[in-house]
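Help wanted!
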Amino acid sequence: DALEPYMSKRTLELHWGEHHRGYVESLNKYLEKDDILYGYTLDELIRVTYNNGNPLPEYNVAAQVWNHDFFWESMQPGGGNLPILGLLQQIEKDFGSFSNFREEFTETALTLFGSGWVWLVLKRNEKRLAIATTTNAVTPLVWDDIPLLSLDMWEHAYYLDYKNDKARYVNVFMDHLVSWNAALARMARAQSFVNLGEPKIPVA
Amino acid sequence: NVKTLGRLYHQQIRGLQTFTLPDLSYDYGALEPAISALEQLDDAIAKGDASTAVKLQSAIKFNGGGHVNHSIFWKNLAPTNAGGGELPHGSLGWAIDQHFGSMEKLIAKMNAEGAAVQGSGWVWLAVDKELKRLVVETTANQDPLVTKGASLVPLVGIDVWEHAYYLQYKNVRPDYLKNIWKVINWKYASQVYEKECP
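Answered by r_m:
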């Protein structure tokens, strides 16, 4: 109940306890039967079973396990507010301002059709931040971008707490739940793979 | 107009006993953006603005499709004291036995396909009006059934979006599918079938 009143205990019991747990158990059942897949790490498993756009049956459960792990860690009690340090600078560089980013993120979440996810990603090739959406269980890992934050827009994520009021759910996420600390840590790690430019070393 | 539709939908809710309907305000809203979207689409096509036209088309497919699908859905449901769940007699019942073996087999097939839909979508019993055959199909999101075949006419559609069952059944979609047959209005389905296959 740490995320109350923004995400209820009941939602977490169901979302984590039933949906997420269900995915984990299904994944384990698949892996029991398949020796080759069993040896992969979760990240590798997702890439392999995505099969370049023609996903194998294991893909959905594997990706949803990963997606939900990532989502829980994208939130924290007492979340919200603004990002700081390098992440804020990068957001301002790539979106103009934090409020531009927030507006775009919200708009993207609200115009998503059907079930899916909204992401803040670091694009490897373009070396910049971007907002991405994926449907069902797809994740930016499969096209090699680095996710920093995610928001679950499947109805099960918000229906109990907000019914169909997606706007309120998204705004509450941004105001109270999003963990900029997690995003900052992820971006720091991402910079070991993506060169975002020379650090600004002040001249004496 | 939207208000009349709203009143009709509300009347239907009060009648239903064993099934909780989702928030209908979502579906009313679906109509309005579709109407202005159609005007915008005409405009975009007239100006040769391809990317706007495509974006609007997908919005129209979603909102228009959602409206069409839910309109069919409300007609597909009836309270148990008004014939909900009563099996079809007449030509539709006979066609079901012929194509699927029995009503139980049809239900099992539709439930299996409905449960297997990833994410959001619908499962349909339809008649192919050219081939005069019954088929079971699924569609994603709010894609109307015709996206699976221009000659498919929907007879019974079951909404498997999470909003359709979450409040009552949580994540146990199979339980929802098992129970919804108790309120399916086969009279409506038979009417549609007999019109296409007299």
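OP: Thanks! One thing I noticed: The mean pLDDT of chain A is 86.
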